[in-house]
Amino acid sequence: MARVDTLGHFLTDVADAIRTKGGTSATIQASSFDTAIANLPSGGGTIEPAEKDVNFYDYDGTRVYTYTKADFIQLEALPEAPAHDGLTSQGWNWTLSDAQTFVTTYNKLDIGPYYITSDNATRIYIRLNDTNRLNPCLGLNLTGTATIDWGDNSSTDSVTSNDISTTIRTQHTYSSVGDYVVSITGGDLYLSGATTANSSYLFTIDSTSASYANCYLDSIYKIEIGNNIKNYGFACFAHLHNLKSITIPSYSVNMSSNYEFYYCSSLKFVTFPNSSIIPQYCFSDCSALEIVSFSKSVISTNSYVFAKCYSLLRCIIPTTNITTLGSTTFQYCYSLKEVIKVGQEDRISQTTYSNCVSLTKYVAPSTLTRIDANAFNSCVSMKIYDFSAITSVPTLASTSAFNNIASDCIMIIPDSLYSTWSTASIWSSFASHMIKASEA
User: What is the pLDDT of residues 15-37, one digit of tens each?
Assistant: First the structure.
């Protein structure tokens, strides 16, 4: 049933807005709204709304709208995405109907925006602050002709190619330090070209094919994708250590290779492309990454996707098609508190949750049949492993699966399997942690 606005709802909304702007959780009476508004901080800044069950993010990771589950299910329309100069909003990566269905079952969701550049160009924002390094070289893989505007009122360069396997490198000299926007129009661009995960050809020091001198990669701090990107290739954004934000358009572009955002250590948030694959090492070593918003289109994942994402808070993978997460998916995700994975899971791969020191509960699906070595190694805060839905004792590959288990951590076992489970090979090492489901 949709929410019917009443005077009570209106007053509550006003009070919530005042609390958000003022950064307080205090009770505010309607009679004191004028005083509370007068005391709000000046300067035009905004304070993010407090996190709730359903959270909407701008492309830079700013939370812009939040809802409780109950309020979100009553919405009749999604809120408007924020407006930005030079960008055209393409809406959110979830429809209202799909999002409400998901939240009804799984209680939480993180929603992100799609944007495309208003002029259809792909723009790379760079900051050059060293007078000895004013000669970056841009590498493009493309078919057709692309025009490069270097953002310093100089003449443009044109690049033509019919071979996407060859990286075309174009060097430019800036006259002074400063911030510039490199704008690329035309062509079918394939963002790839690096031959190892430790390098990228997006911005290099010169135009020689043997060069792996990536000192200019740290200059890139923002990217806005236009309509000319046809593929996110191998390590296309790897090692952009100062990349703080990237806008993603709604049209489908598969991430068919690996290491796309590898070591983007300043990136806080990503609306994942409308793609079916989460590649291997996709976000590995993105140490500032907190949230990735996936759409329903994701159908498969690979190994090491979030390894060493020290700031990742939660992960929602909204697909029924993934039955096994890749090995080491969340290894060393020290801040990870929650994983919501739709569908059944038949196996927990090696080191999937290793060193996830903030996880406190794991609920196994009924289909779980195997737990590999080091799967939950050093999950020292884990309080509960809930195995109560399982109908037969799963294979445990090694006691290392639960290395450093907390002394007060419990394993909830189905009553009918308790005797068999607690004496099973390898499992018997953890018999002291097991309790019957009826006693939990």
Answer: 676 666 555 555 666 666 666 66
